[in-house]
């Protein structure tokens, strides 16, 4: 699937992991990429990778929990490219969280995960939406299949991603009349540097529970994002697509 009209795609948390894979996938489809991350060095590495493939890409350091930082990011995108077509809200706190029974979650850690995963998704969408291409703009929020599975021992993470799914539905209803779609992707456990650090048996974790008996790679998620951002998906909005090799049937 390629896009010849020079779209500009902003991906948060694209300094590594799934975000970097999204950046590579959208660039391969012909889009210009803004790689936004709190990890400036990671963002620059992603841009180097994209530039080596001949893509037009820009690294911007952002803290998605800070309104001023997010607004500066959107200003930078518009100043540089004059348009913003697709936003992928991928930045999150994830593998560094303490896994603990819900009765013992540290309230400060609860606040931190909510600030990045839920509030960050809202702040980026809020700053981007007024300046996005209309009709045709796309917001894609990265949720998690842990919301459907009720994955134990990190209820703060699951709650933050459930918030993302709820926000997806509200934003879809508020933006649809302008021709903008808002959807979420709920990946199952996927092998990234971050997730592989979570456990020794990451490469085989959960494989037995899937209809498809292999581990999920970042590229398994990328195509869904590229599709949701395409013209072919213009009548899909407010949805959460579970991409987990068939582990949840709900
Ligand atoms: N890997 C999995 O198994 C899996 C499964 C389901 C959902 N997800 C979701 O996919 C996304 C990517 O996960 P990943 O495995 O690549 O993890 P990751 O930790 O590599 O990616 C998260 C990125 O967000 C950035 N980030 C963190 N706080 C930020 C902030 N305040 N402002 C800007 N950027 C910030 C980090 O620097 C990092 O580059 C996350 O939303 C995660 O919750 C991952």
What is this structure's SSE topology?
Layout: E1 8-12, H1 17-28, E2 32-37, H2 40-52, E3 57-61, H3 67-81, E4 86-89, H4 107-128, E5 138-142, H5 146-149, H6 155-175, E6 181-187, H7 193-196, H8 218-228, E7 240-243
Parallel strand pairs: 1-2, 1-4, 2-3, 4-5, 5-6, 6-7
The site of nicotinamide-adenine-dinucleotide (NAD) has 31 residues, from helix 1, helix 4 and helix 7.
Characterization of this structure:
The chain is α/β, with parallel strands linked by helices and 250 residues long. It has one domain: NAD(P)-binding Rossmann-like Domain (Rossmann fold, 3-Layer(aba) Sandwich). Helix content is 41%, strand content 14%. The chain has a seven-stranded parallel sheet with strand order 3-2-1-4-5-6-7, with helices on both faces. Strand 2, helix 2 and strand 3 form a beta-alpha-beta unit. The longest helix has 22 residues, at 107-128. The model has no long low-confidence stretch (mean pLDDT 96). The chain binds nicotinamide-adenine-dinucleotide. Nicotinamide-adenine-dinucleotide binds at residues 12-13, 15-19, 37-39, 42, 62-65, 90-95, 116, 120, 142, 144, 187, 189-190, 192, 194-195.
């Amino acid at each position: 699937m390629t896009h010849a009209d020079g779209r500009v795609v902003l991906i948060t948390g694209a300094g590594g992991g799934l975000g970097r894979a999204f950046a590579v996938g959208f660039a391969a489809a012909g889009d210009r990429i803004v790689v936004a991350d709190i990890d400036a060095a990671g963002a620059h590495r992603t841009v180097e990778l994209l530039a080596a493939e001949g893509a037009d890409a820009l690294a911007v350091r952002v803290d998605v929990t800070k309104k001023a930082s997010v607004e500066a990011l959107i200003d930078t995108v518009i100043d540089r490219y004059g348009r913003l077509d697709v936003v992928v809200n991928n930045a999150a706190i994830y593998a560094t969280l303490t896994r603990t029974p819900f009765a013992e979650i540290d309230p400060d850690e609860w606040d931190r995960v909510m600030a990045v995963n839920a509030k960050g998704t809202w702040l980026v969408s809020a700053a981007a939406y007024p300046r996005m291409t209309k009709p045709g703009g796309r917001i894609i929020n990265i949720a998690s299949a842990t919301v459907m599975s009720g994955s134990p021992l990190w209820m703060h993470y699951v709650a933050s991603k459930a918030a993302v799914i709820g926000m997806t539905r509200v934003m879809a209803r508020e933006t649809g009349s302008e021709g903008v779609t808002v959807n979420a992707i709920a990946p199952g456990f996927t092998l990234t540097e971050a997730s592989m650090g979570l456990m020794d048996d990451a490469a085989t974790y959960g494989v037995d529970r899937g209809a498809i008996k292999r581990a999920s790679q970042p590229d398994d998620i990328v195509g869904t994002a590229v599709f949701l951002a395409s013209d072919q998906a213009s009548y899909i909005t407010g949805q959460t697509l579970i991409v987990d090799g068939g582990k949840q049937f709900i």
